[in-house]
Write a structure and sequence with these properties.
single chain, 404 residues, alpha/beta, Peroxisomal Thiolase, Chain A, domain 1, 11-stranded mixed sheet, two-stranded antiparallel sheet, 13 helices, 20% strand, acyltransferase, Beta-ketoacyl synthase N-terminal-like domain-containing protein, transferase, Ketoacyl_synth_C, Thiolase-like
């Protein structure tokens, strides 16, 4: 069985829908902004990727607005786009053969903070009943499944930045077990004051105050990453069934997937990123020389950037494959990050262009990486998407152009 992506939807800091995001990305237009009043005074984080063009009320009914966190509202909007893009007639798909597997990381933190403030300021009677569900990690999966009548197997993956690739792994398993169509991907809305203060404690988040210099992975001036909100949702189907229904989009085949966990820092063993890459390539039946572009994880933390650069050079050879990190225009979206990279890779394969990395002015690894700094036309057949997350998570996906 071969799984293919037949629809995509995006909400991102540099575009509130797929085409707006894609146009801005190819043009190198960043959605990173100085947060100003949106960040608590005591937080050291001064730059974030805020989806300012996203208007929830345009996408979410009023009855759901009061019952959902912004993170779930982002997922509902991206899902509606993806389903519309796929052109699928859901009435022709039994509702128990429709599945949903989304990734989440911090859950409904904004909703939760608001309700806790109400509890302490006004008492328990002012806490909405929806607090019991809106914060929960599976809330987006649940709300999406209810809204669109997906009553088949559903799930939620919590694995920080790698979550959407691991959700895609689960999607493949569901299709193999008889699901006809699965919605997968992930979103994140980690910019509430409480969430920002929590993130700042990691020491990995950039404290720069200038958006154009705040997130510079693989740069000598790298000082951490910028958090952002948004993500993507993909419609995934069995290739034969997609062709049989006359799917108008066959963006890419999901050719290979792998996930690993790093050993403890004190073990003396190397990080597990390379095994993740090599396992995904092996599953895809693809050699390193057949990969046309790598969407890097690009943490922006010097030690972790060095690990990734050296790993890519070891697997592919020095400067042997174009490497890009479009997330420099959105920030790292946690559960939405790999989802957005998967959508971006699918669009890149469709249009034959490598999107750029922005903000890198003094490359730290020019001898190791062919880092793409401006949109580069290319005949793309195979793309590798890499994701790493806090806690030692690694995940990789190989997407391949579908031959019609």
């Amino acid at each position: 069985m071969s799984a293919v992506v037949t629809g995509v939807g995006v909400v991102a800091p540099n575009g509130a829908d797929t085409e707006a995001y894609w146009s801005a990305t190819l043009a190198g237009q960043s959605g990173l902004r100085h947060t100003g009043a949106e960040v608590p005074t005591r937080s050291p984080i001064r730059v974030a990727g805020v989806a300012r063009d996203f208007a929830p009320k345009r996408h979410v009914p009023g009855r759901l607005m009061v019952a959902t966190d912004r993170w779930t509202q982002l997922a509902l909007a991206a899902t509606a786009q993806a389903l519309d893009d796929s052109g699928i007639d859901l009435d022709a798909v039994p509702e128990y053969e429709r599945g949903v597997v989304l990734a989440s990381s911090s859950g409904g933190n904004e909703f939760g903070q608001r309700e806790i403030q109400s509890l302490w300021a006004q008492g328990p009677r002012q806490v909405t009943v929806y607090q019991s569900i809106a914060w929960f990690y599976a809330a987006s999966t649940g709300q999406v499944s209810i809204r669109h009548g997906f009553k088949g197997p559903c799930g939620n993956i919590v694995a920080e930045q790698t979550g959407a690739i691991q959700a895609l792994q689960q999607t493949g398993r569901l299709l193999a077990r008889g699901a006809r169509v699965v919605l997968t991907g992930g979103t994140e809305a980690p910019l509430s004051p409480y969430a920002m203060l929590c993130q700042a404690q990691s020491g990995w988040v950039s404290r720069a105050s200038h958006p154009e210099r705040a997130y510079q992975p693989f740069d000598r001036g790298a000082g951490g990453y910028v958090p952002g909100e948004g993500g993507g949702v993909l419609v995934v189907e069995d290739a034969e069934q997609a062709r049989a229904r006359g799917a108008r989009n066959l963006y890419a085949e999901v050719a290979g997937l792998a996930a690993t966990t790093d050993p403890p820092p004190s073990s003396g063993r190397p990080p597990a990123l390379r095994p993740a890459i090599e396992t995904a390539l092996a599953q895809a039946g693809t050699g390193p020389g057949e990969v046309d572009v790598v969407f890097a994880d690009a943490m922006g933390v010097p030690d972790l950037d060095a690990q990734e650069a050296r790993t890519l050079a070891a697997v592919f050879g020095r400067r042997a494959v174009p490497v890009t990190a479009p997330k420099t225009m959105t920030g790292r979206l946690y559960a939405g990050g790999a989802a957005l990279d998967l959508v971006t890779a699918a669009l890149a394969i469709r249009d034959g262009v490598v999107p750029p990395t922005v903000g890198v002015v003094d490359p730290a690894y020019p001898d190791l990486l062919d880092l793409v700094s401006a949109a580069r036309p290319a005949a793309l057949r195979t793309a590798l998407v890499i994701a790493r997350g806090h806690g030692g998570f690694n995940a990789c996906a190989v997407l391949r152009r579908v031959e019609r």
